[in-house]
Amino acid sequence: MHILHHDLTDPETIARAGKRIFPGLSRIEAHQSRLPMRFRRIDAGRLRLTCFVSRRMTVGFEESDDLVFGRLSDGGLHHVTPRATLDVASPEQCSLYARTSIRVTTTERWSARFFNVDRRGLVELRRIVQGDAGPIDLEGLHGLDGAADPVFRRLNGLLAMSGMWDSLSLDELAASQDFASFEDVVLLTVLEVVDRLSLGVATHAPRPAAPRAVRRAEEYMLARLDEPVSMTAMAEDLGVGLRALQLAFRRHHGRTPSQFLRDRRLDMAHRLLIGDAGFGSITQVAFACGFENLSRFAAHYRHRFGHAPSAARP
Questions:
Q1: Phi–psi pair at 84, nearest 5 degrees
Q2: What is the pTM of this model?
Q3: Are 133 and 107 in contact (CB under 8 A)?
Q4: CA 173 from chain center: how many Å?
Q5: How far apart are CA 218 and CA 180, in angstroms?
Q6: What are the C-alpha distances in Å from 110 to residues 6, 54, 89, 208, 241?
Q7: Structural domains for the chain
Q8: Would you write out the chain's pLDDT as a tens digit for each of its 314 residues?
Q9: Which of 42, 62, 162, 285 is 20 to 30 A from 132 (CA-CA)?
């Protein structure tokens, strides 16, 4: 697996942490933005390039031997011919598939993370995580307990499934929505592991103070518990990228902004239900706390508090 990070706060730290986690992988490198960039397949596996874009950019592709299959985050599949261009808006994700190499040129003032993943890299990563390639000294990596950490457990489970895709042809791969979704989850999980270790955040260490963007987002959502909140609109109002905000929330709270908002709404509903039986019906409480779907409200409430909303009434 070959992971390239662009425009990170400290890309060299990310690279060093990645090499310590995955010593058996081909390469883990960090580069600043440079134009143009060429990505070649580094072994017999397929080449897959995923780009998470933080600003609008136009990408030009040159493929040496066959068509590039491009997939945007809207799920649409685009056959990109050599020397074609593709406009990628922010925030956006673009997945590319090719047999040999991709040469990428972009407009200026862009920021993106690129992942170059081949099949043998995934297999090797699975061997390392599952222990077939020998133990990893996870305790030495900023004190992070890899056996207990949910990110490592999730990565282990995901990689155990990756073998089912080994027999796919390139055409089948490009046409498979399930494969694209599965690979994206694997990549994001790997990135989360590398980012967490590079930041030195241990599962048992005291939680650091929330970043300013997280605090502002918390204030934004807490002031709107009773009204619809668009995560995209909130990120725009705060002047931050949605994906960056999501990663910051995951690092600090272990959940996404939308999950944080849902839990705060559930807490408010719980206080209303147990504190004042005269406030109104359960339906009125749900609506007052920003829930529009009563069945989902009841399911989330039961999951969080262990009983139905009706059982909370005094």
A1: -85, 170
A2: 0.38
A3: no
A4: 21
A5: 32
A6: 9, 7, 11, 30, 13
A7: 2-199 (no CATH), 212-312 (1.10.10.60)
A8: 223 322 223 444 444 444 444 433 333 333 333 334 444 433 333 344 444 444 444 555 544 444 444 544 444 445 555 555 555 554 444 555 444 455 555 554 444 444 444 444 444 544 544 444 443 333 333 333 344 445 444 444 444 444 443 444 444 444 444 444 444 444 445 544 444 443 443 333 334 455 788 888 998 998 888 888 999 999 888 888 888 888 888 777 778 898 899 989 998 888 888 875 556 788 888 988 889 888 889 988 988 888 888 888 76
A9: 42
- Cα torsion 10, 14, 19, 20: sign: positive
> What helix, strand, coil percent values describe the chain, rounded to 5?
45, 20, 35
Give the C-alpha separation, 170 to 46, whole Å: 8
Show the tokens assigned to 224.
């709107």
